[in-house]
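Cross-posting from the modeling subforum.

Setting up a comparison between two proteins and wanted a second pair of eyes on the formatting. Protein 1 (sequence, then structure tokens):
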Amino acid sequence: MDSMITAAAQALAAGDVLGAMKRVALRGDAPALALRGIALAQLGDFERAKALLKNAHRAFTSREELARARCKLAEGEIALVSRDLSWPEKALEMARQTLERHGDRPNAAHARNLQIRRLLLVGRLEEAETLLAMLDPSPLPPAARASLELTVAGIAVRRLKIQIARAAFARAASAARDADIPALVAEVQNAAHVLDEPAGRRIVHGDERTLYLDEVEALLSSDGLIIDACRFTIRRGSRIVSLAGRPVLFSLARALAEAAPDDLPRGVLLARAFGARHVDESHRARLRVEVGRLRAALEGLVTIEATQDGFVLLPANGADVAVLAPPIDNENGTVLALLADGESWSSSALSIALGISTRTVQRALETLAASGKVESVGNGPARRWISTPAIGFPTTLLLPGPLPSG
């Protein structure tokens, strides 16, 4: 590799993007194309960056397997940052294997970190943790080590292991300072703010209190009965009953829990669960059926008794009852949760991350856009969605992936 290419690579590693561009701007050979692509990616011009990296990949000969793998690695990172979740996972794994086979341990470790970050983004936490356990971080330079620690912190936040997350953010900040890249230092600081922002609401007998993530962790670790409106589960200790696919039952459980230890009139229950405005005997009959189903689903956790006016929820052994709700109730909260990361998303990428149909995502985006919560950029296949500057709340508890099991 010639001295100009070496100097450009060193400038990129130090965060001096313009310095790197000056050294390779007029060159058209494969290494220069690759470095220009990486530089443009750091400047946010992802489309031109991807085109340059593809050209560089083609320009390298079949014997230059290592260089081609590094181009694929860069493409994979751009795909992740630009939320192109349709970019093939296998291509990144093949690049990682090539890098490892050629002894490029730092880039092989970085490729593994990208794989973990993608799994984290789409909520596949168990797979992310498995790959993380296989990763040796020792070859990583400071900048990549900061990125890895942010990944560790992200998994810990999703699992509500807040002390582990704080330690990972601290290590990420230290690595970013070692790298001496101001943009990376700022990125770590911004990411760590999630620990110090409101994350949910605790509702007990109609009274609400804002919770931070460490308080959410403490609530879910308590011995009380928790109606979790973020994951649509009823939990106490290690026992968790999911009602995610039974919205009527969950609505009944939440309404009764918010009123406990008092009873809740039948008319209020019908309005909460069925949206009924005018109650007739058919509604009352359906309510009795659904309450019977809820009793069966929560057997051993609660008793639901009929009263003169309605129903009352009585937890087993007199446990405390609390509802854990998102900061703001919104039926499209999971879409907002992903858009809250500040990146631009396509509707197809949101569909992949949430595991729902693209049409469902599009309807949610149209609703959110009408209320001014999100806005679009571009048209057609290039259309991307971003959150408006003042969403007003972090949405960690609505992100894809399970919360801790107790």
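Protein 2 (same layout):
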Amino acid sequence: MARDLREELKQTRPFKSLAQEAYLSLQRTAAVLEHELELSLKPSGITATQYNVLRILRGAGPGGLCRGEIGERLLRPVPDVTRLLDRLEAMGLVARARSGGDRRYVTTRITEAGLGVLGKLESEIDAAHARQFGHLGDGRLKTLIGLLGQVRDR
């Protein structure tokens, strides 16, 4: 049986509404899931946001993406994508190059080192997802995905 959020938060009063309880439950769940991801990533020396950027760039292929496109694809928006990319570049995980026609357009690509980091993390992240969601089964996962999509689309 699922844990009661009020007990988990040591809250004695009822929630104002089901919508408030749903929101707080979603926030608490996201925090728990992100904490587990951060623990999995810690040995590699990257954050969840940096991991997200590397996955985005791997998916983009050899053409890479500009800063704005990376920012639009992030799971959680960050205020300064440039600094995020600066740190990844300093770590040797991404490389940036200016376009010949428009010097303002800078393309970012994942490096072999960045691909290596993702490759080393893949089994650990897959195992974390299995621990987090495996008990739900495919049908319930599809329902969860659909409900979350409806919340985002509202």
